[in-house]
Structures are given as C-alpha cells and as structure tokens.
From TrEMBL:
<dbReference type="GO" id="GO:0004096">
    <property type="term" value="F:catalase activity"/>
</dbReference>
<comment type="similarity">
    <text>Belongs to the catalase family.</text>
</comment>
<feature type="compositionally biased region" description="Basic and acidic residues">
    <location>
        <begin position="366"/>
        <end position="378"/>
    </location>
</feature>
<keyword id="KW-0349">Heme</keyword>
<keyword id="KW-0376">Hydrogen peroxide</keyword>
<dbReference type="GO" id="GO:0020037">
    <property type="term" value="F:heme binding"/>
</dbReference>
<dbReference type="InterPro" id="IPR040333">
    <property type="entry name" value="Catalase_3"/>
</dbReference>
<dbReference type="GO" id="GO:0046872">
    <property type="term" value="F:metal ion binding"/>
</dbReference>
<keyword id="KW-0575">Peroxidase</keyword>
<keyword id="KW-0408">Iron</keyword>
<feature type="binding site" description="axial binding residue">
    <location>
        <position position="339"/>
    </location>
    <ligand>
        <name>heme</name>
    </ligand>
</feature>
<feature type="region of interest" description="Disordered">
    <location>
        <begin position="366"/>
        <end position="401"/>
    </location>
</feature>
<dbReference type="Pfam" id="PF00199">
    <property type="entry name" value="Catalase"/>
</dbReference>
<dbReference type="InterPro" id="IPR011614">
    <property type="entry name" value="Catalase_core"/>
</dbReference>
<feature type="compositionally biased region" description="Polar residues">
    <location>
        <begin position="1"/>
        <end position="25"/>
    </location>
</feature>
<dbReference type="GO" id="GO:0005737">
    <property type="term" value="C:cytoplasm"/>
</dbReference>
<dbReference type="Pfam" id="PF06628">
    <property type="entry name" value="Catalase-rel"/>
</dbReference>
Length: 486
C-alpha cells in the first residue's frame, strides 16, 4: 500500500493535518512540544547544511560595550540594566540572510543584527534584524520560507518564481516585503542601519510586575542606503564591502554606536490593541507606545580571529537572563528551540563553553561530557541533582514570570488578519522618489517569475495595501489589477 494521493506527509509517512499553524494552548500559546510535526520540521531544517549556518551564513562581527543611560529598573530587574552608567561587554554579529558564506554583502536582503551581552548574571542575546518585522509569523512556515530563498534543487540557481509564489500565498509577508523592496533593503554599511529585536518580549521587575517590550537600536551614524545599481557594481568589485567597512572603521578608531530604546506596552493592552502585539509581521505605533531610551552600544574592538570569534559565535533568543521573559509570539516560540538546536548541531553540544560564547560568570550545572569537551568537565564533583554534597541548587526568585494560558490545544492561526494596513502605511510614508524606486525594484524582481497567476496574485496584495502601489506595479509588469480585488 502506498500513498498515491498528493497528501503532505511527515518524514515517517503520516499525513499532515495542518502545515500552516503550530499547536498552541489557545490562540496565544504557548506552543506545545507535542506538535511533533513542528519539531521534526525545525530539527530537520537545522541539519540541512554542513557546516555553515543554514541562514545568516555570511557575517561580520565586533566587540564593544553597552552603557546604561536611563533608569529602567521600574520595568525590569535585569542586572545589566540595574544602574545608569553601568557598562557590560558585548559581541555583535551582522549578517545577510539568504546567501552562502561567500556571497556578496550588498545584495537586497534583511541584515541580521545579533548582540551577545556578557552580563554578571550570564549571557543575554538579542537576536534580531535591521527590520522591525518579519515575513512570517509562525515558526512552522520557516523552513518552507527559507527554501524559497535558497537555490533550485535542479538548476542550483536562485528562483524568483519560488520567492514570489510563497509571498503571494502568504499575505502576512507583505509588510516585510514592502520594507525589503524599499530603500532600506540595501544598507550602505552595517554601521548605517538600525537594529531591532523584532519580537515582543516581556520585562519583569523585582516586584514581579511585567510589561511587554520591543527593542530598537538606532544608529548614531544615520541611516544610509545603496542604490541598486551601485550595490550591483560593488557586489562584483568588492563582495566583502560591508565586512571591510566595519573592520576598517574600528581599526581607524571611528567607533560605530547605536542608542537602544524600548517601546513599553502594559500587559493588559495586549488584549485590546488594534493589531496583535505578538504578531512579528506587525509593528506597534510609536504614537501609541513611544520610544524610551535605555542605553548606548559602542563597537570598539575587532576580532583577533574570524573563525574563533565570528564563525563560532552562537546566538539564540532563548539565551535569557532574569528580568527578561518571552511572549506568546509563535515565531519566537519556535526560535527558542531552533537556534540552540542549530548550534548544538553546527558547533557542538559544548558550544557555550567556547571563549566567544562563554559567560563572564561561573557556570555551575550538571551537564557533562559530549564532543569537544575541552574544560575540566566538572572534575570529580557531584554530577546529579538533588544531592547531599552541596552541589548548586535552584534560586526560585529567578524563575521566569508566570502567565495565564487557556483554551483547547490545537493548530490555531492568529486572530488578526489585516496584512494590508501597515504595508500601505509604509508605502504612503515614502517620498515620491522612494515610491518610484520601490515600484521599479518590485517590477524588476517580479519580471522573471514564470507563472502569470503568481504575479497577478501578488499585485492584488499590493493593491489592497494601496491602490496606487498595486496599479503602478501591474502597469510595470504589463498586467491588470485583478477585478475581484478592485
């Protein structure tokens, strides 16, 4: 007996009931570990390349410090934010997303923006991008999305048809697509772009009170971008342009800096805000939740060895410290598993012990052995818990903050499906010249798409965001806006 129909199946041949929504406890999660299809997809996806990163393969890094400039202790008990003037050493890695380790720096692509703070309470990672949003909002779609950004299995060429087919069938991508196709889709350098935590996180203070937050790193160098023609020229002449620029700036003591701000939302607002605040394809209006200054990040030291520091650096949004908790964002919930798992596969079970990843505080736990265990492996100390030998024990005051969950465990989509308002707002914020450029860029990017139905479907999304936007793209592609959309 074989599977003669076209049903999607797991790797063990069982039919899949839902490939769009992970199983959560109620509509706002958290994600349940019983979703074996999700776990299998993410675990398999992390093992599809050896040995470079599956995504963000090419990057550049630098050391620096973070200095607190504003008192935020009423919002969080995180030790590294505990007093104005406090400095914490850090390491940052900038990257492109889709290309391989040898690809060009100046391609149109989001840029990874990953910061590791070596705090006195252990490491804390903010693993974001230079965009405040993302293409999808559920981790179960991530392997499929990244496959569209990679190479065709037969031709081994990039495949615009796959890219736009997926985007046109995933309207939640429209906001990020509009951002990516605009001027900020090709930053001039890593120094001249903002960074974002993208997801919603939770800060908890010493009294156990919490708020939802979003991180914004604002470049002090100003935002600068490259015209596509210039970017293409540089890609051919100096594909390592951004890597070189960052290294030289620091070598010449022109230290790049960013101001860190947060948006803060009261917990109860999450139930009434006009967009789902846990949907990573949406932003919070800064009119509703203004930016609050936190501190300043300065990069002042280059790596001594690229492989040891940049290539072996491992980041995860699950590398948390007391005072910082996660949110029910379904994309974030999947990343909490996938990133640590990717590092265990790519670098090894003991990746956290490498010098670039090792916390500046003592590590005390009962993890032992594993490949490449290069420290004393706990010597002869007690190796289980609980024990009668004064081994390290838990500290209940450092538990993650509790939050209520309810509902039926099932694959649930987000409640809010307005994927057009924010993308349209972004287009309308652009100057006439910026609008001309984004229309031309999208027309150029969509022209090679093989199927007309994909182009027409995507034109419909642009039209719903803004009629002028969709109409101009349709005209550039020699097509009509579909009548049913009008």
């Amino acid at each position: 007996m074989g599977n003669n129909n076209n049903n999607l199946t797991t790797s063990w041949g069982a039919p899949v009931g839902d490939n769009q929504n992970s199983i959560t406890a109620g509509s706002r999660g958290p994600t349940l570990i019983q979703d074996v299809h999700l776990l299998e997809k993410l675990a398999h996806f992390n093992r599809e390349r050896v040995p470079e990163r599956v995504v963000h393969a090419k990057g550049a890094g630098a050391h620096g410090y973070f200095e607190v400039t504003n008192d935020v202790t009423k919002y969080t008990k995180a030790d590294f934010l505990s007093e104005v003037g406090k400095r914490t050493p850090l390491f940052i890695r900038f990257s492109t997303v889709a290309g391989e380790n040898g690809s060009a720096d100046t391609v149109r692509d989001p840029r990874g923006f990953a910061v590791k703070f070596y705090t006195e309470e252990g490491n804390y990672d903010i693993v974001g991008n230079n965009t405040p949003i993302f293409f999808i909002r559920d981790a179960i779609k991530f392997p499929d999305f990244i496959h569209t950004q990679k190479r065709h299995p037969q031709t081994h060429l990039k495949n615009p048809t796959a890219v736009w087919d997926f985007w046109s069938l995933s309207p939640e991508s429209l906001h990020q697509v509009t951002y990516l196709m605009g001027d900020r889709g090709i930053p001039a350098t890593f120094r001249h772009m903002h960074g974002f935590g993208s997801h919603t996180f939770k800060w908890t203070n010493k009294d156990g009170d919490g708020v939802w937050i979003k991180y914004h790193f604002k470049t002090e160098q100003g935002v600068k971008n490259l015209h596509p023609d210039v970017a293409t020229k540089i890609a051919g002449e100096n594909p390592d342009y951004h890597t070189e620029d960052l290294f030289n700036a620091i070598e010449n003591k022109d230290f790049p800096a960013w101001k860190l701000y947060v948006q803060i939302m009261p917990l109860e607002d999450a139930n009434t805000y006009r967009f789902d605040p846990f949907d990573v394809t949406k932003t919070w209006s800064q009119k509703d939740y203004p930016l609050i200054e936190v501190g300043r990040m300065v990069l002042d030291r280059n790596p001594e060895n690229y492989f040891a520091e940049v290539e072996q650096a491992t980041f995860s949004p699950g590398t948390l410290v007391p005072g910082v908790d996660v949110s029910p964002d379904k994309m974030l919930q999947g990343r909490l598993f996938a990133y640590h798992d990717a590092h265990r596969y790519r670098v090894g079970a003991n990746h956290q012990a490498l010098p670039i990843n090792r916390p500046r505080t003592d590590v005390k736990n009962y993890q032992r052995d594993g490949q490449m265990r290069f420290d004393d492996n706990g010597k002869g100390s007690v190796y289980y818990e609980p024990n009668s030998y004064n081994g390290p024990t838990e500290s209940p005051e450092n538990k993650q903050a509790s939050f209520p969950v309810s509902g039926i465990a099932e694959s649930v989509a987000y409640d809010h499906n307005d994927h057009y308002t924010q993308a349209g707002d972004l287009y309308r914020l652009m100057s006439k010249e910026e609008q001309d450029r984004i229309v031309q860029t999208i027309v150029n990017e969509m022209t090679p798409v093989e199927k007309e139905e994909i182009k027409v479907r995507q034109i419909g999304h642009f039209y719903k965001a803004d009629p002028d936007f969709g109409t101009r793209i349709a005209k550039g592609l020699g097509l009509e806006v579909p009548q049913e959309v009008k």
